[in-house]
Amino acid sequence: MTGQAPHSATPLVSAPLGKRMLIGAVIALMLISTFVSSVQHPDPSWPERWVLRPLIIVPLAGAMGAAFYHIMDYLRRQMRLNKWLALTLGILAYIVALWLGSVLGLNGTLWN
User: Fold this and answer.
1) Which residue has the higher pLDDT, 36 or 75?
2) 8-31: per-residue pLDDT in tens?
3) Strand pairing partners for 107?
4) Alpha-carbon gap, residue 103 to 32, rounded angstroms
């Protein structure tokens, strides 16, 4: 008989990670596309396809923020961290990731 731990170890990289990253990227894409589409008359000094940069960078930042949220949830389950602490840190990190992605994506255009 082999000695196995009574609890099964869940892998850190799994299907829920991909789902959470996709959801985080879609939320970020919806937010930045709403913000970018509100520009009626862009400044002529901006690059011709200035919209592409924020529409690529901000969803990537949202996906990374969602990945951090997933890691916090994983640590909560594995290390028995406080549920509210992990939730608060995960949401705060997602918001910071969106903000930093927005600054990086809109740098030189709407963020001056």
Assistant:
1) 36
2) 566 667 788 999 999 999 999 999
3) 111
4) 11
